[in-house]
Structures are given as C-alpha cells and as structure tokens.
Design the sequence.
C-alpha cells in the first residue's frame, strides 16, 4: 500500500523530468564535461535532477536521495538506512547529446537495502516501465515478462556497455570478449543501462552484462527485471548489492548461468 | 533531373514498405530462419521486399534489382551494367524480431557502378534520409551534414556490428578491438548498418566500421554519408566497391584516418 504512494510519486516525477528531456532532445543546449568527454553533463541533466530530487525531498523529507549530479548531498547516509532513492535523471546522456534517441529517466527506491519500487521512463517513445516488489512489472500499465522462449545463450540477444571513462583499466575489462560474442545470437550496445534493463524486462533483450556502473544506473532497472521473472546478479553470480560502483549481469534467467560462464 | 524521378520512386516505395513494418512492429508474425538464427527472415521482410522489387521492376523494367530476399533474381547481371538498385527492405531484422525500435528500409541506385540515389527510411520514427549525387543529403527534406565539430577519434561516438553468422571466423574479425575501443569517446552497436550510416550523415554518430556486410546494406547509406560531407572507404582506405560481401569504414571525414589506423 505504502509502496504505491512511492511508485505514484516516482512516476509523476519521471514523467515531468521526461517532458524536459523530450522538449530539448535534438536541440542546442549548454554542454559541460564531468569526469570525461563521454560523460557529458547537460543543462537538461541538471534540470531533470533538480526536479526529481526537490520533489522527493519535499514529499519524503526523511528519505535519503542518491543522484548522479548531487551525490554529495546524500549527506553521508549510507544505503540500507530506511528508505533510499536512487535517481538517474538522464541515463544515456551521451546518446542525448549526440542525438541518438535512446535515453531514459530512472528512479528506484530501496527499503533497508531491498529494492521496492522501480520506474524507468523513455520520454522519446513515451514508454513507462514500473515495478513494485512482489507485484510484477508493467509497461504503460500492462504486465510484461522477460523473454521465456530463448533458453540458451546461442539464441540470446545480449547487450553491454563500455565505461565512460576511457582510462578505466581496459574498457573490455579483462572479460573474454571474443568468447562471449561468439556464444550469443548477437550483441548490442545501446548506451543506456537503465533502459536496456527495462528492455530485458519486456523481452526485447535477453541479457546484459556491464562493469563500472553506479547504483543509480541499475536500481530501478534491476527491480524491473526481477519482478518480470528474470535474474539479476553481479558478475560473480552473487546477489546485486547497490554499491557506488558495481558490475551487473541480468537476464531472462534461463541463460543466466551460461552468460556468467561465458564471461568468466 | 532523371535522378529525381528515381529518388521519388524510391521514397514512395520506402514509405510504403515502412508502413508494413510499422504496422507489424511489436506484433506476432511468422518467423523463419535464413543462414543463421541471427538472420531472422520474417513475413514482413518478404512483404516489404516484394512491394519494393515489384514497384521498381514495373517502373524501370530495364534496371537490375539486387535485394536481400531474392538475390538470385538479379538474373546474373552484375553491378556496373547501367542502373542497379540495391534493396534492403528491412535492415535490422533481428532488432525488429526482438522488438528493439531501430530498423529501416534502404534503397540505393547506382549507374555504371557509381551511387546516384540513396534512401533510408526509419518507419518507427518516420525519419526519411535522402541523397542525390551532387545535391547533398536531407532528413525529412531538410539538409543535414556530418558532425564537423568532432575532429579527433577521442571525441568520436563510433558504432559497429557483428556478423549475423556466428560461425564467421571470429566475429571480432581479427581487428584490434581493445585498441579501437580505448581510442574513441564510446562505442555503440545499434543493429542496423543502413540506419547507422544515416545517423552519421546527420551527425548523431561520428564513424562506423563493419565487416561482412552486403552491398544492399550500405549502398544507400554510403551515399548519404558522402553527400553529407563525410568519407566512405573499405577498411584498407580504398574506395568502397559494391561487392556482394564487403567491409566498410565511414565517418565525418575528420576522424577517418585515425579510425583506419586504429583498426589496423
């Protein structure tokens, strides 16, 4: 019951932030550089973050809000203390900046470290993915499931991404890239981990692996996948912990062990 | 003048084929397997091909038509004889089958081996990319140019794809993948070479390389890039020849030599 209030708030804020993103997509805007040129912070990014963060703090002043742009404002509180919101106001910033129409707003909520609400909103296609713990995943209000027809890695359409920091010790991260790419149906790199997780939850992709993501990149999306019948772990096969930096493997479940083995 | 008639015909047929694709996207349809499971031929694919091929043959009976589905009907005529149409009725078939909204219709025309008309149509976003030799490239009727702001590979958003046949001798094709991925801003794999070339022509991507494509995958898109101010070669830096199997590097021009060097 209470989760429903949280979900409704997250949906409203995601849609409002999405309106900002949609209205500015393809246009000119002030550009900024964060840790590297891949990680372009735009005016839009900051506006969307402010909108969501302000909205959450006004409504739930006791909650912790962890976001990409104002991570430091988390005030030293650690995830696991009561309610923690994970906000990525514009996942796929590089896509947005270059004009590739694949980006989203991602808002997740955990309670004592356990994900309870997840919202991923694609403002360009107006696709709203929502999940509540124990209540399944919906796309624009209709229940969706992971792809349950593809049971082997050889049939899987996988997706991955490369750290935005090109100096990160080897963007292929020591993984056996040749092995994994030879094992699957094919591989994509679409540029937004949160939206890629949402695509897994509705069967458009079969699995994802990625290194060096942040908690706010995957919080909402991993609940979408889990509630849609899929499986989410770290690359060692352990339960995902929402640490600041993390690795993730998520899939329809059927291919999960094969995926982890191919990555090892 | 004459090219304009060809362009108008190609646009009409691409839009009609696009209507078929759009109306069936996300739905159920009969699936078939071609050379491998990545290369799913759908009913939609065949319908769109029939529509385009029939339309071109009715209007230009003396022209050769080379298409993905009925390649053999080219009747032994080789590209280079007068007018040759290169038709990919649904580039990004795997995306279409899985439900990833990134696919297109691609129609190119060459005259004595030289590309003269190119049309790439994204039916899901209703984006029409057109080019005529010597007259530039347009997106929905408005002139576009390649990205002229990013002059170095380190700023480039690159894209690539992997052969649909997973048995093709190493999908990474002996390229120095680690080197190229460490050299660019970031890398995508969006799943439709024709639409990726169109994205280069309007500055959304900076460069592409790919192995093992077919002439109909790249004919239209490579004219889009060239007429938008970019550069198109094979991976050795030679002019692109529209052979059955080919490799391609295309870019905004500025990064082209750096791209080729990183791939060698």
Sequence:
């Amino acid at each position: 019951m209470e989760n429903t209030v949280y979900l409704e708030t997250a949906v409203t804020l995601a849609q409002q932030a999405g309106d900002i993103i949609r209205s500015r997509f393809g246009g000119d805007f002030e550009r900024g550089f964060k840790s590297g040129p891949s990680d372009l912070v735009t005016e839009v990014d900051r506006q969307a973050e402010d909108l969501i963060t302000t909205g959450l703090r006004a409504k739930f002043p006791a909650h912790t809000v962890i976001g990409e742009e104002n991570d430091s404002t988390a005030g030293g509180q650690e995830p696991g203390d009561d309610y923690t919101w994970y906000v990525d106001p514009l996942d796929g910033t590089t896509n947005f900046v270059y004009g590739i129409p694949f980006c989203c707003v991602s808002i997740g909520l955990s309670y004592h470290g356990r994900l309870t609400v997840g919202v991923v909103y694609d403002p360009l296609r107006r696709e709203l993915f929502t999940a509540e713990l124990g209540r399944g995943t919906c796309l624009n209000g209709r229940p969706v499931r992971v792809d349950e027809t593809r049971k082997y890695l050889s049939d899987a359409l996988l997706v991955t991404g490369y750290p935005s920091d090109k100096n990160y010790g080897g963007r292929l991260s020591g993984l056996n890239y040749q092995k994994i790419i030879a094992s699957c149906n094919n591989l994509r790199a679409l540029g937004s981990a949160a939206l890629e997780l949402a695509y897994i939850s509705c069967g458009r992709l079969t699995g994802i692996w990625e290194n060096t993501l942040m908690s706010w990149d995957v919080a909402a999306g991993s609940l979408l996948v889990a509630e849609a019948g899929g499986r989410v772990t770290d690359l060692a096969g352990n339960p995902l912990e929402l640490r600041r930096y993390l690795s993730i493997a998520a899939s329809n479940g059927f291919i999960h062990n094969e995926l982890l083995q191919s990555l090892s």
The first helix of chain A runs from residue 2 to 24.
